[in-house]
Amino acid sequence: MGFERTNNTTTPYSNGFNVSSLGFPASFVNATQAAAFPNISFNDGIESLGQTGFANNPGQGISTEDQVTISHGKHMFKTGVDIRDLRGSQFTDSTPAGTFSFASNQTGGPNAATPTGGFGLASMMLGFGSSGSVLTAPAISWQQVYYGFYFQDDFRMSSKLTLNIGLRWEHETSRTESFNREVVGFAYNTPTGIQVPGYNLNGGLMYAGKNGAADGMYNPDMHNYSPRFGFAYSLDSKTVIRGGYSLMYIPIPTTQITTGYSVTSPWVTSLDGGITVTNKLSNPLPNGALPVTGNSLEFSRSPTLGAARSTCWPAAT
């Protein structure tokens, strides 16, 4: 039995910084996910501020491999099991206190529509930015279990020939998220319910565990049988010919897609291309962060995926 635990963490130097001390209102402070200094950048060579974000990605695995070998006459029977329980959590927010960009255009003159000159730092002092946003990143927790069972017979047919015949069955459960915060597909032919004259609008995201769908990212294949065959033939005291065949299954690569749970709230600085200010830096999100829609727009159920297969034909003398 084995146990492994890892953790990948990143903490900004400004961890614990209170952004309200910079004059930001409660609507902005409540939209941030962590206490840190915001990311501030300029387009004219001034050094950026607050570049490091948060990350906390612990994971662990528990595995057991057991085997029984029985010798009977010309046969050597082997059977065993391989079980792996994998779990992890992931949270990454590269800009936990928001990101703000400032350019020289906002302070260039004399015509605001065709600015010349200007200074990014001066634009920041006026609170007139070029772009910005606050990210609401999800913290996900996933689980996945792998099962493998096998039986093999090493049959010594004669003093010169030995056969290896075996079968393995593998089952990899679908990776699940503890609260089903993941997209599992796209319903291409499902009506959206949105009425637009002259158009039939179809398609929408599919979420795990919603409207009868399975909790996993997909419905796993239950027919992953892997036959094995090998032989060893002794031509003489110095030469042995070996060969074999095996069918193997490759683990399904999975990455959680969290559309609907990850939301970027933009800082709307101007509605006319930067000529006039809409929202100043002093109150970048007057209405707060955009809401997290989650899986409220679910359409259909999870797809069925099969593991990729790989065949092997080794031979040696």
SSE layout and pairing:
Elements: E1 2-10, H1 26-29, E2 39-42, E3 54-72, E4 75-93, E5 99-102, H2 120-126, E6 131-136, E7 140-156, E8 161-172, E9 176-177, E10 183-186, E11 205-207, E12 219-220, E13 224-236, E14 239-250, E15 263-266, E16 304-305, E17 308-312, E18 315-316
Parallel strand pairs: 2-5, 12-16
Antiparallel strand pairs: 1-3, 3-4, 4-7, 5-6, 6-15, 7-8, 7-9, 8-13, 10-11, 13-14, 14-17, 14-18
Order of helices and strands: EHEEEEHEEEEEEEEEEEEE
Mean pLDDT: 86
User: How large is the share of residues in beta strands?
Assistant: 35-45%
* Unreliable spans: 300-305
Query: Helix segment count?
Result: 2
SS elements, strand count: 18
Structural class: mainly beta
Q: What is the domain total for the residues?
A: 1
Helix percentage:
under 10%
Shape: elongated
Please summarize the sheet with the most strands.
Answer: 10 strands, antiparallel
The radius of gyration computed from the alpha-carbon positions, rounded to a whole number of angstroms, is: 30 Å
The N- to C-terminal Cα distance equals 36 Å
